[in-house]
Write a structure and sequence with these properties.
mainly beta, 15-stranded antiparallel sheet
Length: 283
């Protein structure tokens, strides 16, 4: 639920309240072989963790819009998501399976034990320029204090590995050649593109990992759209890379390799615009 108010000409403020709920299930299993029993025929011990979270989150924002000239406007805005302490219940179990995967025993270590997850604060600031008609360009920066993350009093959650604060910077823009064109539909389409670079919270060997991405998309207005009743279908794509494949040597002489992930995302959205309250000019 979100609500915003205008404080002065060009200046608005808003607050947002959200409800977070859901569960996280984690399992870790081991098999130990011997001289007489190979690993594939040995029993398997599984450490199972189930956590259910539910609580409220809060966010506040501030935005100012002004203009340099009649054809050049600027926007400055920021949001802050406050640090949240999500209430949770955790259950821990130790399960033993035979080599066929048949469960032979279950030992409950902890059942519905109450606890909290401390989700760090998130701050975002951005600035944009536009001509109030056909184009806009924006720059955004984000910071989140993942070093403050705790889950059931464990730093870094169940992994126990401390996390680092994250940073992200993004640059993007959009262009609509001619929103009022009647001879070409594609002149009414909005074309978008952007770049982003983010530092991840993980630091193997003390070195930062990065998430780099490029995005592009389109906003297609329905041919029947009018100034009072407009519907737009937005389609966006993103390609990015996380991490790297660097290799480092540990103190015991063994090698540790990082992981690099390539990913593609697609988003589909529909925007409905309808002016409900129109002041009558003729009674």
């Amino acid at each position: 639920m979100s609500h915003g108010v205008r404080l002065a000409t060009g200046l608005t403020a808003g607050v947002s309240v959200g409800y977070v709920f859901g569960s996280i299930d984690q399992e870790a299993g081991t098999r130990i072989g011997t001289a007489t029993i190979p690993v594939e025929l040995s029993s398997k011990d599984i450490y199972q963790q189930h956590i259910y979270y539910s609580d409220f989150t809060f966010r506040a924002g501030l935005h100012y819009r002004g203009k340099f000239t009649d054809k050049l406007n600027y926007n400055i805005g920021g949001t802050h998501s406050f640090r949240s302490n999500l209430n949770g219940d955790r259950s821990l179990s130790l399960i033993r399976q035979d080599f066929q995967g048949i469960q032979s025993s279950t030992t409950a270590i902890e059942t519905d034990a109450p606890g909290k997850a401390q989700v760090p604060a998130l701050s975002q600031v951005g600035i944009s320029l536009d001509n109030n008609r056909s184009w806009s360009a924006s720059l955004e920066g984000t910071r989140q204090e993942w070093s403050q993350f705790r889950a059931f009093d464990e730093q870094g959650g169940s992994s126990g590995i401390p996390l680092s604060d994250t940073y992200r910077v993004a640059l993007g823009g959009e262009l609509t050649p001619d929103a009022a064109s009647v001879d070409s539909y594609f002149k009414r389409v909005t074309y978008r593109a952007g770049l982003s670079l983010a530092q991840m919270p993980y630091r193997p060997g003390g070195k930062a990992l990065y998430d780099r991405s490029v995005s592009w998309g389109f906003a297609f207005p329905l041919p029947t759209a009018t100034p009072l009743d407009a519907t737009t279908i937005s389609l966006a794509f993103m390609y990015g890379q996380r991490g790297n494949t660097d290799v480092r040597q540990l103190a015991d002489g063994s090698l540790e390799r990082n992981v690099k992930e390539d990913y593609v995302r697609m988003q589909l959205g529909v925007t409905l615009n309808n002016r409900w309250f129109i002041k009558r000019r003729i009674e």
